[in-house]
Amino acid sequence: MQHVSIDRNLSTYLKGIGIIIMVMWHSFDNPDWYASTISYPYLLPYTKEIGTFGGFAVVAMFMFLTGYTYYFHKDKSCKYSLRKISVFLLDYWIVLFSLVALAAYFCDYIIRPLNILQEMFSFKREVMLFSWYILMYIEIMFFLPFLHWTLENYRMKKAALIIIIIFIVVFLVQEVLKIYDLRGTVLYEIVSHDFMKSMPMAILGYLMAKYDLFSRLYEKIGKNNLYYIICLTAFLAYHLVSKQNIICTPLWILFLYKLNLSYNKYIQELILLLGRHSMNIWFFQCIFFGAATREVFQPLGFLPYYPPLVVMWILFLCMLASLVFTPVQRLFQPKVEALFK
């Protein structure tokens, strides 16, 4: 049986593909995020389709890779998760404070300590519209040590039963929050969006790494061109019938694995570069869509107007910002990591 796994190179490549789709998604799937001077009336009939397209290859894939790569790290303790979360928050805060400064200087944004504190932990999103990922990442990184401990200490059936019971309890909490009309709260988001919808993808990623399921999937259906027909059918079903990330995300990853990523050196290197800076790009793009900054900065991001050029231009600007800020982040990362040694 051929061994198939996601190595560092493929993981970075997948993130590069994901961030390209994400910028396209954010740029054209939600007219409510447009500044008053930006309009794409000819795209309005297709915004729903743009929003649906490729969801399994964006957030779901990032969640999957979080669980998958976690399995291969030797230290699976809560201390390790806390270290990862702390470094992640540091990187995020450096971007946040930079955008807050730009918002205050160019957009008349009023800096209020309580608002900034809420932005730091994604309880408020006037500046960092897409910072909801922060809470999701924290939740997943604290759950994965428990998942590892459960699978190591119990047989599969009992471990599965424990996980199922946890999901049932969280589902009941979700329903109680609905009854008390708390859908718009951060607590509901943590329970419903982050745990019920996103946690299964991180768990799936961990399980596929632990039990070498990509190799088994490749052995069963991935050896010949029939696999591409299966993928096309699954992706169309995702788009037209129901969003099934648990099915489509692994198929998408194996699909890219089979495509032979080295077919074009220059394109490959560009996508790998985007992948290495994907998280910074994720956060820096907020300046073009956040309520506090969009009126001033979105016209700059949409300067080329033609949609494909807009996506490339926003990626370029965010990449440029990331190249400037990454050395600053790396300067402070060791100091944070030293706190957990």
Description:
Helix 1 packs parallel to helix 13 and helix 10 runs antiparallel to helix 11 (245-258). By secondary structure, the chain is mainly α. The radius of gyration is 21 Å and the shape is globular. It has helices at residues 8-28, 47-52, 59-71, 78-106, 113-120, 132-153, 156-179, 186-210, 213-221, 226-240, 245-258, 265-276, 278-284, 286-289, 294-301, 307-337. The mean pLDDT is 93.
User: Biggest sheet, in brief?
Assistant: none
- Please give the count of helices: 16
Q: Could you give the distance between the termini?
A: 40 Å
Strand content: under 5%
Which descriptor suits the 3D outline? globular
Unreliable parts: none
Q: Helicity, in percent?
A: over 70%
The oligomeric state of the chains shown is single chain
Number of distinct beta strands: 0
- Rg is 21 Å
Order of helices and strands: HHHHHHHHHHHHHHHH
How does the helix and strand content classify structurally? mainly alpha
Mean pLDDT figure:
93
